[in-house]
Structures are given as C-alpha cells and as structure tokens.
Amino acid sequence: MKTKNLEKVQFEELEKKAIYVMTNQVVLADGTVHPSELEAMKQLQEDIGMGSNLVSEAQSTTVEEALVSLHNMTFPKKKVLAKILEDMAVSDNHLHEKEMHLIIQTFKNIGIGGETE
User: Fold this and answer.
1) Measuring CA to CA, which residue among 2, 22, 36, 1 is closest to residue 78?
2) Residue spans of beta strands (DSSP E) within the chain
3) Alpha carbon separation from 95 to 4, 49, 98, 99, 102 (Å, rounded)
C-alpha cells in the first residue's frame, strides 16, 4: 500500500491508534476479511511505525475515541488519512458500498469534505 505522503507525515501515538481503528472498521465493513486486506493492514502498521504494543492499545480504543483524535488532526494529516482509508477499501480489489459509506461518514465526522481531492 506504501503511500508516498506517509513519508512526509509523522503521526502521534493517539493518531496512529485512531488510524488503526478506522482502517480496521473499513476492513470489517463488508463483512469479509480478505487476505489482501490483512496484508495491507500489516503494511500500514509498518508505514506509520506502529509496534505490537501500540496495536494492542489500538484494539481497545473505541471508534468514538478514534474519531476525536482524527478530528483534532491537522488538515494535511487528514488528507493522508483519506488516502489511507481509500487504499484500504480497495486493497481487496473491490470497493464495497458499505466501505464507501463508512469512509464518507468518517470524513463528515472529522470535518473534511470534497476539499480532500
């Protein structure tokens, strides 16, 4: 999945946990976890520097807590998040309607819209 913009952005621990939570939600949205999605999650964890301890902490983070952290991120970080979620949604070579709806709702909840293009 290696997103170019990840190299320019340093996410804080709370942000990393929130990104993990929301990308996991995207993976689960269509009701099927594909091997390619698991591989994309592993790659994302590596790309943003998430060790196993942080992953464990992220697994006990609620969606609501994640949305607060994501809402508080800077706009450039939100743009990178948009790309991460998009890449995760298509990592199984299919964009499911439920994944698209979840991503759009996430954007609304964290205060980004069409300007992320």
Assistant:
1) 22
2) none
3) 21, 26, 8, 7, 11
Tokens encoding 7:
């190299």
Give the separation between CA 31 and CA 99, rounded to whole angstroms. 10
CATH of domain 12-116: 1.10.3680.10
Decide: 47 and 6 in contact? Cβ < 8 Å: yes
> Contact 47/2 with Cβ under 8 angstroms?
yes
Per-residue pLDDT at 8: 74
Take residue 6 and report the two structure tokens written for it: 């990840």
22 closest CA partner among 43, 3, 47, 41: 41
Pair of tokens at residue 84: 């991460």
What is the C-alpha to C-alpha distance for residues 19 and 16, in angstroms, rounded to an integer?
A: 5
Sequence-ordered list of residues with C-beta below 8 angstroms from that of 24, at least 6 positions apart, any chain = 41
* pLDDT mean over 29-38: 95
The pair of structure tokens assigned to 65 is 């807590």
Confidence of residue 43 (pLDDT cuts 50, 70, 90): very high
